[in-house]
Amino acid sequence: MRFVVLSVLALVSCFQEQPADRMWRCSVAEPLCPDKQTCVNDWCVADGTTMPDLAGADLGSAVDLAKPPCADGFPNGTQGVWACRGKFSPATPVASALCQNGYKLCTDGNKVNDAECSSPAVKGFFFADVPSPGATPAQAKCLTGVGTLGMWFGCGSAIGTTVPTERAGAGFGCKNFSLVSQCDGRILFCSTVDPRLDAQRLENAANGVLCCPP
User: N or C of the chain: less Cβ packing under 10 Å?
Assistant: First the structure.
């Protein structure tokens, strides 16, 4: 009994002393957690550990940090990036509105590696705020200056279009991203003059955006 009490106290102490260590909510219906974590009592915990009953515990800001960064999504990788599903448009909601609780649209791929980004477990394509000119994935690159907006970098594989998600050619890519989804009316309608993701329109809610931690 003493061992159990000490274990619980140690865990609570850890949450208090390290508020930057986020705790993710999960559910039986969607037990999605970062790698090496398991859904236990509606929380993602390290594999092999038992989550203490947090009722009545004064965890302060740690509880707020446990709020997921989107209404419908899942962790992508192990560094806090989330894939957040939902439609967006230049009117409302804009793409960045899908990211909540301090999270922002990812503007680079520094926190998600290529294996995590291209994993078959990532269902749907999740756009980063990283556009590409042209319409040939083999030459997808960073959009600089004036160019014809034709593709967007991100993670996953697009749902709801026959246009495949493709990989930039050797020597191309942008900001650590290599996967692109083309501007296509069956998934993403692109503005030709505004290179912000907030200026684009996504019609298929099975896809979404990449949200990075603050």
Answer: N
